[in-house]
Structures are given as structure tokens and as C-alpha cells.
Amino acid sequence: MLRTALLCATALVLPTAASAALMPLTSFGGGDGWLAPGEGGYAFLGTANNERGLAYNPTTGNLLLVSRSGGNNIRILDGLSGADLGSLNLGTGVISGGTFPINMVGVGTDGAIYVNNLTTNSTTSAYKVYRWASESASTPTVAYSGDAALPGSRVGDSFDVTGGGTSTQFASGYGATPAVPGNNSYVVHTTADGLAYTATAVALTGPVAGDFRLGITFQDSDTVIGTQKGGLTNPGNPVHVTDFAGAVGTLIASPTLSTTAERPMDFAVVDGVPLLAIQSTGDSTLRLYDMTNPASPALFDVGNLTSGTLAANGNGVGQVKFGSVVGDTAIIYAMSTNQGIQAFYFAIPEPIGAGFLAFTLLARRRRA
Q1: Which residues span the domain enclosing 46?
Q2: Contact at 8 Å (CB) between 347 and 15?
Q3: How far apart are CA 178 and CA 119, in angstroms?
Q4: What is the DSSP letter of 174?
């Protein structure tokens, strides 16, 4: 009888996945949390595969959107409303080369902005990463130009930035084609001065070619998570959790998530809970996973703010970024290319520890 009562009490106080709701940020996108392609006549968010990069600037609260609609543009969007605030200054003659001159974007904790290009052969067309000191910088500088430490590789489809100043690092996954030994991993860039960066190819055993091409995120300064999910070389391939030290990588876990279309991703710790946010490039659904056990992620919540028939994201690209994280709340921005930008508000439910406290108090009362 006592055991039954205790179990019932625990069930009442322990949170469920359903209680951790992904809700629309109602100030964003006209009130529904979704800035749809072309909404309100907006010209820099369309359905022609020209918008692949999205990042959050923690120093301003704004978003950075890479758009090649009507030319090369890096738009600054208000993080609360999605309103266009203007563009980064691209300078004159600085940005050049690559299959796409600009592609993905990331922002350091110091507010420095990094935008990469996409190259399909890093020997014949250099992989480049450009740096803006801030949103108001008059011109970018070239933070890196080279072969991404793997001559002949495709690189630039995925991109993430962590840290700031001299502790800044950024990473990008290699593509499966061209067939270059070592393209089953990713490149990490580090810096001594916060301005110029050196590339290191991380060697891994286990993943197959291109396994970090379509989604990549730092978990911390020496842990990278990535995927290509459903890639031609490894259909249904898992998410890979890896550690690295210099050029030496170690595969920690390779869990399989809910669908093979989950690709753009970001990681954050919210109220002590390690969370992976990852978006399906099929239907734009965002899923949150608790990564406490990286070998067996627990599905925490699912959200989708879109409506109607979505344009196809045939390249499986886009970016997901955590925005403001305060206490047990967070904002998440998710852009699957051709399907607009979604802004979610999220609150961690009552800690599990509270459930155990109630369990203990009830047990004490029963023994008294």
C-alpha cells in the first residue's frame, strides 16, 4: 500500500515531456512565431535555395541572415520581431570566390560575426571565412583562406562558432564528394589573436564520408556533434558525438534520432539540462533532445509553427540557433531553407529533483 501511494505521488509531481512545451515567440513573424518565405513582401527570405545561414548575436539580441537573393546580403533581423534592421557592410573586393561566396554564419560570445563560403574543391577554390568585429563594422576581414586542412575537399555546408576573442573556434563538416581521405570528419579553426585562424582536420574512425556535412554544433570547446542524416553514402546515418584534441578525434556515441531528415542543429545547456535542438529539413519540425546520456538522447519536446504546403528543401540545409537563455527559459530560432524562420519560446519544467523531494516528504509522513 505504501509503495503504491508513493508511486502515485511521484507520478503527480514528476514532469513529462509534454509539459516542456515549445511555444511560439508571439512577438516574432506577425504574432505566430513564423516568418514565412516572402511574408509581407520580404525579399531576403524566399524559396530559391538562397538562404541557408542563420545565427544569433548574444551581444545585441539580433539575428544574422545570410541571403543570396538579389546578390550577396547578410541581413540583421530584430530577434524579438524578425523585422529587418539593415545589412552588414560587405566592404569592397573583400568577399570573393567559392561555389557560393557566402553561405553560413556564426557569432562569437564577443559579438564578432563569422561567415563562410561554400567550396566544392578546396584546392582549386579556397575555403574562406570572413569576420566582422560587430554588426556596425565598416568592412569584413578574411579570418581564414585555404584548403580547410584537407586538400580537394568540399567544405562549408555546415558551420558553428563557439567562444570569443582568442578562445574563438569554428567548425565545418566535410562533404562526401569529392572522395578525399579524411572527409568523414570536420575541420576546426583556432586563433592566437582573435583575427587570423588556423585550420586543423580532425581524424576520426567510425563515421563515413560526409557524416558532418549537413549539421554541426559545438557541445563545448572540445566536443562536436554532427550529422548528414540520410546521406547517399550512409542512409539513415546517426548523429555523431565526438571529442577532439588537436587533430585527434574520438567517437563518443552515434545515436539514431527520430527521423532521417533531422539535420540543422544547435546545443545549449538550459537550467542544467544539456539540450540538442535539431530540425527536420523535410517538414520543418523542431525536436529537442536531452543529451544527458549522449548514447541515448531522450526526446524532450517537438514543435512546428509552419502551416500550409511548404516548399521543398532539397539540399537538406539550414541552421538552428539558441537565442537568449535566461534561467530555465530559452528562445530557439530554426530555419530550414525555403521554409522560413521559426522562433520558439521554451521553459524547462519543474526539476525532477522536486519530484524526489515530494517523494521523500511523503515517505517520512507515512513512517511517522
Answers
A1: 2-367
A2: no
A3: 11
A4: B
